[in-house]
Automatic annotation (TrEMBL):
GO terms for molecular function: DNA-binding transcription factor activity; transcription cis-regulatory region binding. Gene3D superfamilies: Winged helix-like DNA-binding domain superfamily/Winged helix DNA-binding domain. Belongs to the LysR transcriptional regulatory family. Keywords: DNA-binding, Transcription, Transcription regulation. Signal peptide: none annotated. This is Regulatory helix-turn-helix protein, lysR family. Residues 1-58 form the HTH lysR-type domain.
Length: 142
């Protein structure tokens, strides 16, 4: 089961036909039929039944559409939250490690910090050259 298959199902439910869903999604009708067939195989139950010239969701189809809508809502919320964090400068961790004698990028504190950040899925942006320049010009006392 994929998010794309769930999008197809939700659109079929909304429009009531594979052809209309295909038009809305920008697909050809056989692609929608294929995605629905694969989704029904994955679920192990029919999701739609023919009613006249249209389609109607089965009980399983209704359950899956309800969950698909929740998934889409969670995805939109995640997109908005991530965009907000990125817009406010989040996502970048700057770290400097100082020793008693000089600025280093590989001392023990940095090693542990890098290990911890890597375990969190984060990375350290290197600033050694900028720190060395500031030390050389006296902007930072040695």
């Amino acid at each position: 089961m994929s998010v794309e298959q769930l999008r197809v199902l939700a659109e079929v439910a909304r429009t009531g036909s594979y052809t209309a869903a295909a038009q809305v999604l920008g697909y050809v009708q056989p692609a929608v039929s294929y995605q629905m067939r694969r989704l029904q195989q994955a679920v192990g139950a029919p999701l739609v039944v023919r009613v006249g010239r249209g389609l109607q969701l089965t009980e399983v189809g209704h359950v899956l559409v309800r969950h698909a809508d929740a998934i889409f809502s969670a995805m939109r919320a995640a997109d908005h939250e991530v965009a907000s964090v990125v817009a406010h400068g989040g996502g970048l961790v700057r770290m400097v490690a100082l020793s008693a004698t000089r600025v280093t990028d590989r001392n023990l504190d940095t090693y542990y910090a890098e290990s911890w950040l890597a375990a969190q899925g984060l990375a350290i942006a290197p600033y050694q050259e900028a720190l060395d320049r500031r030390l050389a010009t006296g902007a930072i006392p040695a």
